[in-house]
Specification:
The chain has a six-stranded parallel β-sheet. It has 15 helices and 18 strands. It has two domains: 147 residues, no CATH class; 243 residues, no CATH class. It is α/β, with parallel strands linked by helices.
Length: 403
């Protein structure tokens, strides 16, 4: 085995100019770009240039059988009431909000469930903004404050309706990328505090994400602070159900609040389940997996934390390192590195070798992107590594190497 590896290296390195310098520079490049990939993946603004590619891969290879029977989705799109709207203490008219009387009843019923078959956790993805006032606010906010295992949605651009809600509130916001307004990466630890998925994970597993400079840690391990969330639920809208004659959604699909808001129904539907309350109709986000309700994205983000998908896989990091190292070595090669592959080298087709000359490191990175996604569901940016190598290649070519 050692002899085989040595022969491969000898064949590969025979075309490398200034081997010692090439190895040293390539080790430095691979280290910089491996850590750079980690940092870029934590910066949701920089990774999203290949959304169309990932959408195509999902269309061709994605699974439509996402089933998770541990969650109850409750739709509140049709439960509305009129509230007084005030700005700076001055009433300016009326607005519609989620029916707060119905929410009080829902929480009362969930709390009344038998302890041995109670709910696991409540995700209350409902907006409670200062200035929206109803007659049920006081009792609802007190009920939320006293409710065990519950989190409500907060947003960085609003003020909560009451200080009573602060202990239960976590952020439910997402970032867009520089190249797309679609939802892409979910950020767990936000500048102002924990997100909803991270709060639930923190409460249930006594673990969170801590930031130390540019690095993030969870459960004493290096982790990512952002994650490309893939819905763990298959969810279509009601029109799809009625037009097709039968539901095409994998269980469990959402239940409308006004149809199940009684103790008998909830005791069956919510037994030992995560209860996700949100607008499943109007609050949908464009992703390369399709349109997904925000509440489902929140739950899916929690599920990825629960399964440890945010933790850094050092084997994948090693593959990234090797990839960058080989590409960096190719900068010192007299001929395209792909021509060192035995079956390519043996080919006598002039047209094939002509086409090979166009397969530079950008193509290699593009192919690697596809392989990483299909094999490991890992998504990373390629344009910054490609730009890095392009600049370095130009520098070596015109200043030193003259290759």
């Amino acid at each position: 085995m050692k002899t085989y590896i040595k022969n491969i290296w000898s064949s590969f390195s025979s075309h490398i100019v200034n081997k010692k310098k090439a190895v040293i520079v390539s080790l430095v490049n691979a280290t910089i770009l491996t850590f750079g990939t980690y940092f870029m993946n934590n910066c949701s603004l920089l990774t999203g240039e290949n959304l169309d590619l990932y959408a195509g891969l999902e269309y061709l290879f994605g699974s439509n059988e996402n089933v998770n029977d541990s969650v109850l989705l409750i739709n509140i799109a049709y439960d509305k009431q009129i509230a007084k709207k005030s700005i700076d203490g001055i009433c300016v008219g009326n607005t519609d909000v989620t029916d707060r009387e119905a929410l009080v009843k829902l929480l009362q019923n969930l709390k009344a469930m038998p302890k041995d078959s109670s709910y696991r956790y409540i995700f209350l993805d409902v907006r409670f903004e200062a200035g929206d006032e109803t007659e049920y606010d006081s009792i609802l906010f007190e009920k939320i404050k006293s409710m065990p295992r519950l989190v409500i949605a907060n947003h960085e651009d609003i003020v909560l309706a009451s200080d009573k809600l602060k202990s239960k509130a976590a952020f439910s916001d997402y970032d867009i990328t520089l190249t797309s307004t679609n939802f892409f990466r979910y950020k767990f630890l936000r500048p102002k505090g924990e997100s909803m998925p991270l709060r639930v994970y923190h409460d249930l597993y006594d673990d969170s994400i801590q930031q130390y400079g540019w690095f993030y840690f969870s459960n004493r391990s290096l982790c990512q602070n952002t994650h490309v969330v893939k819905s763990v639920l298959k969810l279509d809208d009601e029109d799809s159900q009625s037009n097709n004659g039968s539901s095409v959604m994998a269980a469990p699909y959402y239940q409308n609040l006004n149809k199940i808001n009684d103790l008998q129904s909830l005791s069956v539907l919510a037994k030992n389940k995560y209860v996700v309350v949100g607008n499943m109709i109007d609050d949908k986000h464009d992703t390369f997996f399709g349109k997904i309700p925000g509440s489902v994205l929140v739950f899916s983000a929690f599920w990825s934390l629960k399964n440890g998908e945010h933790l850094v896989d050092f084997w994948i990091g090693a593959i990234f390192f090797l990839l960058f190292f080989c590409i960096s070595l190719s900068l010192f090669s007299r001929s395209p590195i792909i021509e060192r592959i035995p079956w390519v080298k043996r080919s006598k087709s002039k047209l094939f070798h002509f086409c090979i000359t166009f397969l530079g490191y950008s193509t290699v990175l593009f192919i690697a992107t596809i392989v990483f996604y299909l094999c490991f569901e890992v998504i990373s940016s390629i344009w910054i590594p490609a730009l890095y190598f392009s600049i370095q290649k130009a520098y070596f070519t015109y200043k030193y190497m003259k290759v």
